[in-house]
Each structure stands twice: as structure tokens, then as C-alpha cells.
Amino acid sequence: MKQAHHPELDEISLTAVMAALSDPIRVGLVLLLADGRERGWGELRAPVAKSTLSHHLRVLRDAGITRTRQEGTRCFVVLRRDDLETRFPGLLAPVLAAAECDGVGRQVELAASA
Fold first, then answer.
1. Which of 38, 42, 61, 94 is the most buried (most CB within 10 A)?
2. How far is Cα 79 from Cα 34, in angstroms, rounded to an integer?
3. InterPro entries annotated for this entry (predicted)?
4. Domain segments of the chain as ranges
């Protein structure tokens, strides 16, 4: 399988990050990943088709917000918190706090068995 492209730290742009975080599903995914744990794509539940969830995960990866790792036929995703903090100090925490306060992304959750 083809290896996913992840932008280098200096390639991550503020506009790409903000555009990726403009969707409630993607914000919900980032909120779930904010605990720092790597999650299998199968653990993530959202009220969208699997192909749409895959699209959202790709948008986050392409913006430099997440890193995807493939192991056999399974894919895993983790938040690039340290990279985002290095590139845009102090950006992520208030965005996620505001999202939690407003309930943005609450429809995204972990599978019951996770």
C-alpha cells in the first residue's frame, strides 16, 4: 500500500489548520485524539459514512494536524500536538476548550469496545 504523505513541520500552514478545523466532525476527531493516544480508525464513530470519515481523517492529515500509520490492513491515527504547539504556540488548547464548551464535535465518539 502507498505510504501517506505528512507535511513537514515548516509545511504546516495556519490557513490549512484552521480550514481543517472548520468542520464539526473533524473538531470532534481532534477532541478524541487530544488525549495523546493513538487510535485505530475502527475505534472512531461519527454519524457519517465510512468513506466520509476517511475523507475527514485525510483532511486532518494533509493539514498536519494528525499522523496516520498503517499496519497491515489497519490504520492508526494520532494527534500531532507537539508539532502544532511548536509551529503555532498556544493555538490548539483554546480552540479545543471552546469546542468542548460549545459542544462542537460531540457527535464523534469512540466505539463501545475501545
1. 61
2. 6
3. ArsR-like_HTH, HTH_ArsR_DNA-bd_dom, HTH_MetalResp_TranReg, WH-like_DNA-bd_sf, WH_DNA-bd_sf
4. 9-100
